[in-house]
From TrEMBL:
It comes from Anser brachyrhynchus (Pink-footed goose). Keywords: Biotin, Cell membrane, Glycoprotein, Ion transport, Membrane, Sodium, Sodium transport, Symport, Transmembrane, Transmembrane helix, Transport. The gene is SLC5A6. Sodium-dependent multivitamin transporter that mediates the electrogenic transport of pantothenate, biotin, lipoate and iodide. Functions as a Na(+)-coupled substrate symporter where the stoichiometry of Na(+):substrate is 2:1, creating an electrochemical Na(+) gradient used as driving force for substrate uptake. Required for biotin and pantothenate uptake in the intestine across the brush border membrane. Plays a role in the maintenance of intestinal mucosa integrity, by providing the gut mucosa with biotin. The chain crosses the membrane at residues 6-27, 47-67, 79-101, 122-143, 155-175, 187-205, 234-252, 273-297, 331-354, 374-394, 400-425, 432-453, 505-528. The keyword Metal-binding does not apply. GO terms for cellular component: apical plasma membrane. Interacts with PDZD11. This is Sodium-dependent multivitamin transporter. It catalyses: (R)-pantothenate(out) + 2 Na(+)(out) = (R)-pantothenate(in) + 2 Na(+)(in); biotin(out) + 2 Na(+)(out) = biotin(in) + 2 Na(+)(in); iodide(out) + 2 Na(+)(out) = iodide(in) + 2 Na(+)(in); (R)-lipoate(out) + 2 Na(+)(out) = (R)-lipoate(in) + 2 Na(+)(in). The keyword Cell membrane applies. InterPro entries: Na/Glc_symporter_sf, Na/solute_symporter, Na/solute_symporter_CS, Sodium:Solute_Symporter_SSF. It comes from the Eukaryota. PROSITE patterns: NA_SOLUT_SYMP_1 (PS00456), NA_SOLUT_SYMP_3 (PS50283).
Length: 618
């Protein structure tokens, strides 16, 4: 169907308002004149906008199309992923956020230098940049391609408009503009999905009838307690394998951690993690209900006659349901591209941050504040233009695009393993961290690419249970959704390496992060573990001492590998005056002193570091 003038108006309004938010923050407040303001919003944000921004960052257009397609094809088993959100957000709130926030860092990878050394920091930074640069072009291009195929919406006009608007408001308004546009775009996403569900359910007799018919057709799944990790979706795969996927996104990913660090205090950062939990559940419910309504609607009003990819079917459904309601198709397109805008703007800002803090500043220690801010803005602009270039490259990749998409998921697990190795195992040394990360990446690419090649090479065979095979119609967006929500199960049981490659994609993060930890610990023990006294206790979260808090102090000290955790055994109902040393004006961490006026951040004071412990527990 063709768009009407009202539809184009609503879509244009989304872009104009997003750009207006960027201009507002470019011309108000501090006018983005400092690195602290541009990259961290002056650490002034409340928990609610941060929570909605956390939600929007990885709620891309791929998920808006992919999850309903998953429910349409395989039923509601995927809905159990919501069980993983509890631990997947509770652990970051009480483990990762306190460590990162109290170190007063800007880039997540600064932690790696404090815990290990500068080399490990650079390895982590380069891995993250590689991951995000490949991903951001695809996440812009793929939904535009699907939209073009279904509605005739001009492909490159959409790509260029979205890319340029996103680049402008990110470059002009900094992180504060990104967060507030995320809030606006999240509301648009909710409105678009809700409109589809309400109108679609009304067209087929109400939500009660949708649920009843879906149940009759076997689309309402029960709890599958099969522990086999090679089965694509079971309760354990989704509820526990999903925890590691959530930790790789909400625990250590720079785009998310940067939002925690923009909070006005640690309590607000923790509250943002709690607040995003119900929001995630609502988003998951809306996507799953959309899939069920689409399933029933397609049974009674067939949408297409020929073969079509699942994500395109979602768009056909939306356009057919909303065709008699001017403006609502435009609202859903705005919803779809809000997902792209929020994800891409987060990528620009986080890439500018890690490049500035991890690659530029360490080599230019005399860089003035004004010049550093200018470079940060230029980096955001540069990454925006690079995103458009990657979108063009995506259009030419063909079959290789599937592997490029898969890289985003492959890299998250090893990075999670690297941070867990440093935070939970004081004996780990820099050599173990580097070798562990490389081993984790090698394992991730081996399993991921092996699964892809195996499924593509099966002549005429059905794809494996977690296959990332390219869909037969060659649609790139379908390939993207297929990577995240893999297709149908194979009719025959694989053996040998085929069995290894058929590991459920939901266990990828757990498998790869465990590889990093195991290899990192082995190498550390072989090359000489780090002595506990040499480890900065602020970079360690003492898991075993806190879980086994009933043990005598000397045993807990032994479990902590000899790391000197000050007063960890003392009951502490309130912070004492001494402990409040860490909470000095402007958020200066203990043991730090301000740089010169023209510089951003802080340097370590001479002499032994002063540590102030604030207990955090589940």
């Amino acid at each position: 169907m063709e768009f009407t003038a009202i539809d184009y108006t609503i879509f244009t309004l989304l872009l104009v308002l997003s750009l207006a938010i960027g201009l507002f923050y470019a011309l108000s407040g501090g006018r983005q004149r400092t690195v602290q303001e541009f990259l961290l919003a002056n650490r002034s944000m409340g928990f609610l906008p941060v929570a909605l921004s956390l939600l929007a960052t990885f709620q891309s257009a791929v998920a808006i199309l992919g999850v309903p397609a998953e429910i349409y094809r395989f039923g509601t088993e995927y809905w159990f992923l919501g069980c993983s959100y509890f631990l997947g957000l509770l652990i970051p709130a009480h483990v990762f956020i306190p460590v990162f926030y109290r170190l007063q860092i800007t880039s997540t990878y600064e932690y790696l230098e404090l815990r290990f050394n500068k080399t490990v920091r650079v390895f982590g930074t380069v891995t993250f940049i590689f991951q995000m640069v490949i991903y951001m072009g695809v996440v812009l291009y793929a939904p535009a391609l699907a939209l073009n195929a279904v509605t005739g919406f001009d492909l490159w006009s959409a790509v260029l408009t979205i890319g340029l608007v996103c680049t402008l408001y990110t470059t002009l308004g900094g992180l504060k503009a990104v967060i507030w546009t995320d809030v606006f775009q999240t509301l648009v996403m909710f409105a678009g999905q809700l409109a589809v569900i309400v109108v679609g359910a009304q067209r087929v007799g109400g939500m009660a009838r949708v649920w009843r018919l879906a149940e009759q057709e076997g689309k309402i799944s029960g709890i599958d307690l099969n522990p086999d990790p090679y089965v694509r979706h079971t309760f354990w795969t989704l509820a526990f394998g999903g925890v590691f996927m959530m930790l790789s996104l909400y625990g250590v990913n720079q785009a998310q951690v940067q939002r925690y660090l923009s909070s006005r205090n640690e309590r607000q950062a923790v509250l943002s993690c709690y607040a995003v939990f119900p929001c995630q559940q609502i988003v998951l419910c809306l996507s799953c209900l959309t899939g069920l309504v689409m399933f029933v609607y397609d049974r009674e009003h067939p949408l297409v006659t020929g073969p079509v990819s699942s994500d395109q079917l979602v768009l056909y459904f939306v356009m057919d349901v909303l065709k008699d309601l001017p403006g609502l198709p435009g609202l859903f397109v705005a919803c779809l591209f809000s997902g792209s805008l929020s994800t891409i703007s987060s990528a620009f800002n986080s890439l500018a941050t890690v490049t500035m803090e991890d690659l530029v500043r360490p080599h230019c220690p005399g860089l003035s504040e004004s010049r550093a801010t200018l470079f940060s803005k230029l980096l955001a602009l540069g990454y925006g233009l690079l995103c458009l270039g990657m979108a063009y490259v995506s259009s030419m990749l063909g079959p290789v695009l599937q592997a490029a998409i898969s890289i985003f998921g492959m890299v998250g697990g090893p990075l999670l393993g690297l941070f867990c190795l440093g935070m939970f195992f004081p004996c780990a040394n820099p050599a173990g961290a580097i070798v562990g990360l490389l081993a984790g990446l090698a394992m991730a690419f081996w399993v991921g690419i092996g699964s892809l090649v195996s499924s593509m090479g099966a002549a005429g065979g059905a794809p494996a249970a977690n296959s990332t095979a390219r869909p037969p119609d060659g649609n790139i967006t379908a390939a993207l959704a297929t990577t995240l929500l893999a297709p149908t199960a194979a009719p025959r049981s694989p053996t040998g390496l085929q069995k290894f490659y058929s590991l459920s994609y939901m266990w990828y993060s757990a498998h790869n992060s465990t590889t990093v930890i195991v290899v990192g610990l082995l190498v550390s023990l072989l090359t000489g573990p780090t002595r506990g006294a040499a480890v900065d206790p602020r970079t360690i979260y003492p898991v075993l001492p806190r879980l086994l808090c009933c043990l005598p102090p000397k045993y807990r000290q032994w479990l902590g590998c000899g790391v000197p955790f000050p007063a960890q055994d003392a009951a502490r109902p309130e912070l004492t005056t001494t402990e409040k040393v860490a909470r000095v004006p402007n958020g200066v961490a203990a043991g730090c002193v301000p740089r010169d006026e023209e510089e951003q951040g802080y340097v370590r004071a001479a002499g032994p570091p002063a540590y102030a412990l604030q207990e955090t527990s589940f």
